[in-house]
Amino acid sequence: MLRKVIPAFLIGFFAFSTLLAHEKHKHQPASPDTVLKSADSSVVLAPSVDTLPYRVPPMQDALFHHLHNEIVHLPIGFGLGAAFLFLLALRWPELHRSGLLLALLGAAFAVSAYFSGQAQTEPFEGTSKEWVVELHEKIGVATAISLWILVLFGFWKPLKRYAWVWGLVTLALISAAGFYGGLLAHG
Prior knowledge:
mainly alpha; two-stranded antiparallel sheet; 2 strands; elongated
C-alpha cells in the first residue's frame, strides 16, 4: 500500500504546486516610454528606467553580496535529493549510498548556510521583518540538525531502514525554512 500512496502523493503534490505557483500573481507590463515636456512645450520621449539595459555588477559583488541566498540552495537540493533517494531505496537498496552522500553534502552545506545567514541578519534588526528572520533562523537550525540526523540514519545499521521516514521530516523542515527565507528574500 505504501508503494502506491507515496508516489501518488508526490505526483499530486508536484502537480498542484506547479498549477498554483503563480495564482493571483500579476505581472506588470513593460512601462511605456516616459513623456517629458521641455521648457518650449515640445514633447520629448525618454526611455523609462525599465527599458534601460541591465548592467552586471562587479563580479565580487555579484558572487558574495548575498552569499546566504546562494549557498542555501545547496542544502535544500541535496536534502530533497537525499530524502527522495532514501524513499526509492525501499525498492532499490543500491540507491541508499547515494542518498547518504547527498545527505552528508546537504548537512555540510547547511553549516555554511547558517554562518552566511548570520552575516545577513543585521539589515533586518529593528524592522517589521525581524521576527521572520528569527523564525527562519530557528527553523533553519532545526533543518541543519535534521540533515545531520538523516546522515546518522543513513550510517547506523539499525536505523537505515527508517531513513526515508526521517527524510520526510527533513523535507517538511526544508519546506518551512524555505518558505520563510523566500518571504525575506522576495517580500
